[in-house]
Specification:
single chain; alpha/beta; Serine Threonine Protein Phosphatase 5, Tetratricopeptide repeat; Rossmann fold; eight-stranded parallel sheet; six-stranded parallel sheet; 33 helices; 14 strands; about 10% strand; elongated
Length: about 775
């Protein structure tokens, strides 16, 4: 009797196996193992057939029989391990893979299989080790390059992943996975342009995979290439409309572009597919906020946080909206988190937290955290890359708000009065179309108005550099619709934080902040990352051409009592804190026949403030809410108020200028951070320091004093009117000269090859 099967029988087995007739292959193989029980190949083949037929336990037995006959065959241990892995016995699988390697040191496939187990199990160190071993022994084994790249990405070794995946592409340039994962790696590293190149290569190799187009959309969105991002999101959704991630990201972009109805639809579709998708709830909250549905937005934020309590940004959104609707029940929560949220947690948009407390140090830490986590591109060009030799200093103002917007009311005069013998003025607009009266005035004021809203970040940088802008001024900072990524990539040799955001950027790529010695006193200087351009008076510009309507109206037209003392605060409701509001209620108790005139920003704030008034023993009807109106009429109605009461952590800015321009005195409490000292700066520039208080007791005392002494109040009003055109605050030409002097000094400093440094402007009268 032969110990080995005949060639004919083996060929029959191989033939049936190759044809895919696994039933016949199993039958033949089983027959061979019975006829030739001492032939290891028969058992080995039977084990392979059993595995193919998903008879994993039988396969293990067959391979074990083979091992008894051929104990030094690494294939057998690898095969047994494969079966153990498939039935979930990973320890047994690992042991057998390691036995295969002990027998044959360069048995690469077992190294690979070990790496795959460890990767799936989350043991990244061992996964990395065994994938590298695979490559050492089999340098052209592409699956190891793919999985090693994935492992390194998960371990935050993205630079190593980039090297590995690019090596894999050099070996075989037709593997989709290599391009796909390399695209993600480069995206994580901030190499967005390069990531797009590899995503496109991946799409060429596998054009029907929705995930590639989804990731392309994300990358293009980051670059500000919104049109191409939309195209790729739509491709992805066409291939697979059941991806909540794609729908969420697309919805977020549509929100950013102002297409709120479609954004809401996208996000709700994402949530229908995944009701526990916290980020989609958060983004939906943002959409609902922009649609004015503040109650629904709060509910969406709360759902997001309930699902994932670690969503720091969402909690910041929630607390901001709670403040916006004057829900004082959130005060304690804000007090607990304001020293940690966005500082020791993941980052949040710094603007959300400006009104939470009065702490310059925390503001700096929060800004730095936000910049480091969101704007960490290492590839932007530095000063040395700029060699402009312009005849005039080219200033570029960058903003989304070149329309009827509070900040434009302040700075339009500055734009108009710039010295065209020295400066050439550009306005770069990335906001939505808003061709109103202010936009027309801006266009007339500047030398060149450039609409860049439809251009990508790269294109905007190219446009800016082509125009050889010497000084780029960021008008938005961290406010809504900001384009911080433009400044991250270095638009110009000198970059300035000005007006829009009252605080430090915390960014190395912002060289200067425009301020004065009141908004940034010496004891707070350490909490500002920028060099400071200290103007001699108030940092805030004002337009001396502001028009007040001549409408003849009465208090009754605004539902104000004819003979009442009218306290006024037209600040946005998110600035109103429980501390100052309670003081206002105490004052209403003390001053008979007095009312508080507030701005109607939303119905929920109005309702909540009336409830708070009632809690304080004040008739809610003594709170009167002014409707929104045009600027001229708004300025005109100030004449019906007696005294403007400022908020604490976040002062009146434009609203304080409105009041003072209209002849209405403003009482403020001077704080520590920039936003809490703006009104003090305005009043100081009008020589009205007697209206600046240092603490809550002084604040309350002064209000009561002026409300009780009509003669004293009248003297202050007279002084305000006399100083309006005599003092610096509303002297736009004077302000412009000082501002230009500051910019010139930054430019001279740059030309001299010096790093940015603090600049004190001494006025030459």
């Amino acid at each position: 009797m032969n110990k080995n099967p005949s060639t004919e029988k083996l060929n029959e087995l191989i033939k049936s196996y190759e044809k895919g007739d696994l039933y016949k292959a199993e039958k033949v193989s089983l027959s061979l193992s019975k006829s030739y029980p001492n032939h290891p190949l028969s058992w080995k083949i039977l084990g392979i057939i059993y595995e193919k037929n998903k008879k994993y336990s039988d396969s293990i037995k067959a391979n074990s029989n083979a091992i008894q006959l051929s104990p030094n065959d690494p294939d057998l241990y690898n095969n047994i391990a494969d079966n153990y892995k498939k039935i979930g016995k990973l320890n047994e699988a690992i042991n057998n893979y390691k036995k295969a390697i002990e027998i044959k040191k360069d048995y690469f496939i077992s190294y690979y299989n070990l790496g795959s187990i460890y990767l799936k199990d989350g043991n990244l160190n061992d996964a990395e080790k065994y994938f590298y071993c695979t490559i050492d022994y089999k340098s052209d084994f592409i699956p190891s390059y793919v999985n090693l790249g994935i492992t390194l990405n998960k371990a935050n070794k993205n630079s190593d992943a980039e090297i590995v995946l690019k090596k894999g592409i050099k070996i075989n340039s037709n593997i989709f996975e290599l391009y796909f994962y390399l695209g993600g790696t480069l995206d994580t590293l901030g190499k967005i342009e390069e990531s797009i190149y590899y995503y496109k290569k991946a799409a060429d190799l596998k054009p029907n995979f929705f995930g590639t187009y989804s990731n392309l959309g994300n990358a293009l969105h980051k670059l500000g290439n919104y049109n191409d991002a939309i195209t790729n999101y739509k491709k992805s959704i066409k291939l697979n409309n059941k991806s909540p991630e794609t729908l969420n990201n697309f919805g977020n972009l549509l929100r950013q572009l102002g297409n709120l109805n479609e954004a809401e639809k996208c996000l709700k579709n994402a949530l229908s597919l995944n009701p526990n998708y916290a980020k989609a709830y958060s983004n939906l909250g943002n959409v609902l906020k922009m649609k004015g549905k503040l109650d629904e937005s709060i509910k969406a934020y709360e759902k997001a946080i309930k699902i994932n309590p670690n969503l720091s940004q969402t909690e910041a959104y929630l607390l901001y909206q709670k403040k916006n609707i004057c829900d004082f029940s959130a005060t304690n929560r804000i007090s607990k988190v304001c020293s940690t949220l966005g500082i020791t947690t993941s980052s949040i948009g710094p603007f959300s937290a400006l009104s939470w407390n009065d702490n310059s140090k925390e503001q700096l830490l929060r800004s730095k955290k936000y910049v480091n986590e969101n704007f960490n591109n290492k590839n932007y060009l530095t000063d040395k890359n700029f060699k402009y030799n312009n005849k005039k200093i080219k200033i570029g103002y960058f903003s989304a708000d070149f329309y009827d917007f509070p900040s434009m009311h302040l700075m339009i005069g500055l734009l108009e009065k710039h010295n065209r013998n020295i400066f050439e003025i550009y306005a770069f607009s990335y906001g939505l179309n808003n061709d109103d009266w202010m936009n027309k005035r801006v266009k007339s004021a500047v030398d060149k108005y450039v609409d860049i809203k439809n251009f990508s970040t790269k294109e905007i940088i190219e446009i800016t550099r082509k125009n050889q802008i010497d000084i780029a001024i960021d008008e938005n900072g961290f406010t809504q619709n900001a384009r911080t990524e433009l400044f991250e990539r270095r638009l110009s040799p000198i970059q300035v934080n000005f007006l829009g955001y009252p605080g430090t950027s915390g960014a190395k790529f912002i060289d200067y902040i425009v301020a004065d010695h009141i908004v940034i006193p010496d004891d707070q200087r350490q909490f500002y990352s920028e060099s400071i351009i200290y103007l001699p008076h108030c940092y805030q510009p004002n337009d001396d051409k502001r028009k007040t309507s001549n409408k003849e109206n009465t208090r009754e037209d605004f539902n104000l009592p004819k003979n009442a003392f009218v306290f006024c605060c037209f600040n946005k409701t998110y600035k109103i804190g429980v501390l100052e509001f309670n003081i206002w209620m105490k004052i209403l108790k003390r001053i008979n026949n007095s009312v508080l005139w507030l701005l109607k920003t939303n119905v929920w704030a109005m309702q909540n403030l009336k409830l708070e008034a009632k809690k304080n023993g004040i008739n809610p009807n003594r709170l009167i809410f002014a409707e929104r109106t045009n600027v001229a009429d708004h300025l005109n109605r100030h004449k019906h108020a007696d005294l403007f009461l400022d908020t604490f952590n976040y002062n009146a800015h434009t609203t304080a200028s409105d009041a003072l321009w209209s002849g209405l005195p403003v009482i403020t409490k001077q704080g520590k951070q920039f936003a809490a000292r703006v009104a003090s700066s305005l009043l100081n520039s009008l020589d009205l320091n007697e209206l600046i208080t240092k603490n809550v007791d002084e604040y309350e005392k002064l209000i009561l004093e002026l409300a009780s002494d009509k003669n004293k109040l009248q003297k202050i009003k007279k002084k305000l009117l006399n100083n309006k055109y005599k003092k610096p605050l509303f002297d736009t030409e004077r302000y412009t000269k000082n501002f230009e002097n500051g910019l010139q000094k930054t430019y001279e400093n740059y030309l001299n090859g010096q790093k940015p440094k603090d600049i004190n402007i001494i006025e030459n009268l």
